[in-house]
Write a structure and sequence with these properties.
alpha/beta; Rossmann fold; 2 domains; 4-stranded parallel beta sheet; 36% helix; 14% strand; binds phosphoric acid mono(formamide)ester
């Protein structure tokens, strides 16, 4: 059985194939019929985009859908996520889309499964591979190649699963990735290449903004005048290259990491990302259920 838990497990070729498959689905609407295939969406943390775009992707593929959340699943009675996944497998479910707060837990759970595919829809501060793939798909519509493309990821890098997934993937594809963050929110395990927001806006083809992940901060508190120091202001947007684009995984905190009027400006692709999320998630489901990935989840060591 195949899983999508980390962008680090994908080859460059596999990432490119996801983009190609999403493009085929978007252009031709050509999909595999998946009647009598059950998907379970397990969301133990809030979500608007990921949860609903998976739901729409599954419906468009003709799948039957079971919804589980923190309130109506037996996780509230102390069942482990591993046992919940084994239960779904025993019931004949083929796909589980999982968002939950514990970093890295899905790697362990995947080892005990033989007929259920897992998609990581965000695990703590770990990864968000499907967001990364839809971001890459959005970028691929604007630029002919990732090779030497200058991308800046700006914001709360340390607590962002989107930053981690995109850093792995963009570097694999040959992009030059820089980061902007206040010192306490930097993560040297992702990169040591930190620049200022002014430098980022002048040099980047893609400026990817991130929300401050207050819910994951042990010690809260914003860093000074965040918008002026680290955010995208109108002044900075005017210094960006003419064909540069602005991305944000959303939800957006208007007026914090981006000036409100820029959310839908000419350079912004923020709502396009959401639309691209549906076709990319269809591509991901098809790819996994056809068994087209190489990575083996056996003998995982934490
Ligand atoms: N980008 C993203 O994951 O959004 P949601 O939390 O709304 O799913």
């Amino acid at each position: 059985m195949q899983h999508l838990l980390s962008m680090n497990h994908l080859t460059k070729q596999e990432i490119e194939n996801f983009i190609k498959t999403a493009r085929t689905i978007e252009c031709d609407r050509g999909t595999l019929p998946m009647e009598q295939t059950f998907a379970s969406n397990i969301f133990l943390e809030p979500s608007t985009r990921t949860k609903n775009s998976f739901y729409i992707a599954e419906r468009r593929l003709g799948m039957d859908i079971l919804d589980l959340n923190g309130v109506d699943s037996s996780v509230t009675k102390g069942e482990t996520l591993e046992d919940t996944l084994k239960t779904l497998e025993a019931l004949g479910v083929q796909l589980a889309v999982v968002r939950q707060p514990e970093t890295g837990i899905l790697q362990q759970a995947a080892q005990g499964l033989s007929s259920l595919s897992i998609i990581n829809a965000g695990d703590g501060t770990g990864e968000h591979p499907t967001q990364s793939l839809l971001d890459l798909y959005t970028i691929s519509k604007e630029f002919p190649s990732f090779e030497n493309l200058r991308v800046t990821i700006a914001g709360d890098i340390k607590h962002s699963r989107v930053a981690r997934s995109n850093a792995y993937a963009l570097e694999k594809l040959g992009a030059k990735v820089s980061f902007v963050a206040p010192v306490p929110w930097r993560d040297e395990s992702i990169s040591t290449d930190y620049i200022t927001m002014d430098e980022a806006c002048v040099q980047s083809d893609v400026v990817m903004l991130l929300r401050i992940q207050h819910e994951r901060h042990v010690i809260g508190g914003q860093q000074g005048d965040y918008l002026q120091e680290f955010g995208l202001t109108k002044q900075r947007e005017q210094r960006m290259k003419d064909d540069a684009i602005i991305l944000h995984p959303a939800p957006v905190n208007r007026g914090v990491e981006i000036e409100s009027s820029l959310v839908e400006c000419r350079k912004s692709r923020i709502f396009d990302q959401m639309a691209n999320g549906v076709v990319m998630r269809m591509a991901i489901i098809q790819t996994l259920l056809k068994g087209e990935l190489a990575y083996e989840y056996k003998n995982y060591q934490q």
